[in-house]
Amino acid sequence: MIRSRQTLFLISSAALFFAGIILLSYKTYDWALLPLLGLFILFHSTKKNRSVISLFLFFLLGLLLFQFANGWIGEWDVSKETKILLNRSSLLLILMGLVVSHLLSKEKIVLFTQFPNWKKRVSMPSHTISLPLFLLIGLVGSSTIFIPLIWFSGISELKSLFLFAIGFTILNATLEELIWRGVMLSSLKRNVSVLYAITVTSLGFGLLHLSIGIPLHLSLLFSFGGLFYSIVVLKTDSIYPSIVFHMVMNMGMVMNGWIN
């Protein structure tokens, strides 16, 4: 009975978290107060898993500041590329919210910042493979994002995109991985189950793309990317491979003209 109640509590918390991301992404701020209020009530209704609720609450507060900041940036008389880079830099506001949550909960922030053990073997469903081979497969898979460029004829246009692509890739991939696979995944994994941590961070990662205008169905597809990055981090005990894979994907998306 206690276990089922705890499961319902965690599912309800995640549902409110997802609702908050969706409503804030669509800038329906009045309605977004409801999931924030719900999480606040859950925080005060139990002593167990308060750190999880705190994490969700301060993430959403950071997202609220992120949306306000980008509304302000949108009024600036600067280039579209500059606005996009400033938008990605504003992810620091969400990261700061998570840091505040950890400080209030008196929990250590773990970011999986150790380098991979290259001698490690990665467990698969029916066998194991060496870590370098595992990462090579992941890198090859991520690099397929560049295949459409084979049919792209505007070489001069590609060159002009390159510098923007580098800036976007470094900012976006690094900050998103620190938020989702660094702070969120490590904290949830420490306090609840690994399955819960992977599910929440993967789906939340996908839904956050609503805030940059990605349609809901595509944002949900991005959740599979979040799942892949989570698996990479947990298999390697390091965030660096997932940042590299994320950078490869982002670079391909910009060069293909999917980020503009």
Dominant shape: globular
| Residues in β-strands, percent | under 5%
How far apart, in Å, are the first and last alpha carbons? 51 Å
Average pLDDT works out at 91
What's the β-strand tally? 2
Low-confidence stretches: none
The total number of structural domains is 1
Main β-sheet, spatial strand arrangement: 1-2
The percent range for helix content is over 70%
Sheet/helix structural class:
mainly alpha
* Secondary-structure element pattern, one letter each: HHHHHEEHHHHH
Give the radius of gyration.
19 Å
Sheet bearing the most strands, described?
2 strands, antiparallel
Q: For this entry, what is the oligomeric state of its chains?
A: single chain
How would you characterize the overall build of this protein?
With 260 residues, this protein is an all-alpha fold. The protein has one domain. Helices cover 73% and strands 2% of the residues. The chain is built from ten helices and two strands, in the order H-H-H-H-H-E-E-H-H-H-H-H. The chain has helices at 2-25, 29-45, 50-73, 80-89, 91-105, 131-143, 155-191, 194-207, 216-236, 240-255, and strands at 121-123, 128-130. The protein has a two-stranded antiparallel ribbon with strand order 1-2. A hairpin with a 4-residue loop joins strand 1 (121-123) and strand 2. The termini are far apart. The mean pLDDT is 91.
Provide a brief overview of the structure:
This protein is mostly helical.
Please name the defining characteristics of this protein:
two-stranded antiparallel sheet; 10 helices; mainly alpha; 260 residues
